[in-house]
Design goal:
alpha+beta, Ybab, Chain: A, 3-stranded antiparallel sheet, 3 helices, 18% strand, rod-shaped
């Protein structure tokens, strides 16, 4: 049992490293605002198109920035869940057959 726990911790560390290397992006207003994050849901960069920024008001930029951030974090969450599901399946196999599923 202790071995399984240690293995799970090691695998989780490996997944975290892989997720650090994954890049996802969220876009708003047709790409005028782009937010890039890694698979661990850490924002890496924000890009705002200069022409858009010059013409937009503060509230518009703030609203669209929130949209782009949320889209990037949603993508990161999807990648993270997929990686964790794959790790769990690799560690424990397809246990669904044990329970008649």
């Amino acid at each position: 049992m202790f071995d399984k726990l240690m293995e799970a911790q090691q695998k989780a560390g490996e997944v975290k490293k892989r997720l650090d290397a994954v890049t996802v992006s969220g876009f708003a207003e047709g790409g005028k605002i782009t937010v890039t994050a890694n698979g661990n849901k850490v924002i890496q960069s924000v890009h705002i198109d200069e022409a858009f920024f010059a013409d937009a008001d503060k509230e518009e930029v703030e609203e669209l920035l929130v949209v782009a951030i949320n889209k990037a974090l949603e993508q990161a969450e999807n990648v993270s869940q997929s990686e964790m599901a794959a790790m769990t399946k690799n560690m424990f196999g397809d246990l669904g057959g044990m329970f008649g599923q």
